[in-house]
Design brief:
Largest sheet: none
Order of helices and strands: HHHHHHHHHH
Distance between the termini: 35 Å
Number of helices: 10
Shape: globular
Radius of gyration: 21 Å
């Protein structure tokens, strides 16, 4: 998932990463628990408002959710065999809301900041967090680098010669592994792994924006429960 660093001034990006994790959990639980029309309309409206507040590019959003949205549509169509159309529609919209919520939180939270939030909020072991963030970084990085390689003129030359995609895999894997190794070194210096060579970091602190966001989510849950 790409972190939109050029939009650091958005409201959601400035929130503490721990607060983003908490808001995501509350949103997911409320979306799955609340029934009726409000269980479809309010979660969808809230996540779309979040996307607009984060100022995420809608074109990239459409490309990112295209395949998952098709799968959700396919699943909803299958559910029509056993349930009423309204129920299938509700399931489809809820799955769409969950997917958009994960996309939103991932897009406005950097990998390291997100792991800061997980460690601070859930006391995860730093060695485990290090491995998670490295995998999280490597997979999309490898896919992005492979896509770029496919679009180059060198790839078209290889295609004409019959080399295909195979000759690109080893250098792309090597380049992605090198980028991941650099990230590992940077994270070790920040204290995510055992060792003495660490740089000083500032502890996370909740700001007034975080309390505003928490209050807004509490109001949202109360509206869902009593409307």
């Amino acid at each position: 998932m790409e972190w939109y660093t050029e939009r650091k001034n958005s409201i959601l990006t400035r929130l503490d990463p721990r607060m983003k994790q908490y808001l995501l959990i509350v949103y997911l639980v409320s979306t799955c628990v609340v029934t009726g029309w409000q269980g479809m309309v309010f979660p969808l409206a809230l996540v779309m408002a979040g996307i607009l507040l984060a100022r995420l590019p809608l074109a990239r959003l459409g490309r990112a959710i295209l395949i998952p949205a098709i799968l959700i549509l396919f699943l909803s169509a299958i559910l029509l065999i056993w349930v009423k159309p309204v129920t299938a529609l509700m399931v489809g919209i809820r799955l769409l809301c969950v997917m958009l919520a994960f996309y939103l939180i991932s897009a406005v939270t950097g990998c390291i900041s997100s792991l800061d939030g997980l460690i601070g909020g859930f006391k995860m072991r730093k060695a485990t967090a290090l491995n998670i963030v490295l995998i999280w970084h490597f997979i999309p990085l490898f896919r992005h680098m492979l896509k770029e390689a496919e679009e180059t003129a060198a790839y078209r030359v290889l295609e004409k010669r019959g080399g295909g995609l195979i000759p690109l895999l080893i250098p792309v894997l090597s380049a992605a592994a090198e980028e991941t190794r650099n990230l590992k070194i940077a994270m070790q210096r920040r204290g995510y792994d055992a060792g003495g060579d660490r740089s000083r970091v500032h502890p996370l602190q909740f700001k007034k924006e975080d309390y505003y966001a928490m209050t807004g989510m509490a109001v949202y849950v109360l509206v869902l429960l009593f409307i």
